[in-house]
Design brief:
The structure is a single chain. By secondary structure, this protein is α+β, with helices and mostly antiparallel strands. The protein contains three helices and seven strands; from the N terminus they run βαβαβββββα. Strands 1, 2, 3, 4, 5, 6 and 7 form a seven-stranded mixed sheet that branches. The protein starts with 5 loop residues before the first strand and ends with a helix.
């Protein structure tokens, strides 16, 4: 058995739903020259090699972890201010996951694969999303 990959947990600031995240990532502003969605951050992950070995970003939307995207690579991005940043390049597919409530935090947190919520079953991925608070409450009692 292979060890579970290392992941990141990140707040999706300014989005109200997974659909909002999908719409944002479809914009040119959220994509690089290769048309892949990316998230640019100030810090470079110290555990980059582990993240690139099958890791994902797990997105927290409205205080609830709801979905993930696989990390493809890390690109150096130099801003107009001359500061080096990390462009976390992501697969375009956003995979809905089981929900978990998360308190606000800054930056990112590492998430061991063994602690990551499972992906939703393929049969459930096309369902309409529940409101985050309801989804989290159902998760807390073990229904989702």
């Amino acid at each position: 058995m292979y060890p579970a990959p290392l992941n990141l947990i990140k707040l999706s600031v300014g989005t109200d739903s997974v659909e909002d995240l999908i719409a944002w990532q479809a914009t040119r502003r959220a994509q690089g020259a290769d048309k892949q969605p990316r998230h640019v951050t100030r810090m470079w992950p110290k555990r980059a090699a582990e993240l690139l070995d099958g890791g994902s970003i797990y997105w927290v939307i409205q205080g609830v972890l709801q979905c993930r995207q696989r990390i493809v690579r890390l690109d150096e991005v130099i801003g107009q201010d001359g500061i080096r940043r990390c462009g976390i390049v992501l697969e375009s597919e956003i995979v809905r996951t089981g929900t978990v409530q998360k308190r606000p935090f800054q930056g990112w947190r590492y998430l061991p694969g063994s602690d990551a919520p499972p992906d939703l079953a393929p049969a459930r991925r096309g369902e309409d999303a529940l409101p985050p608070s309801l989804s989290a409450a159902l998760s807390d009692i073990g229904v989702l």
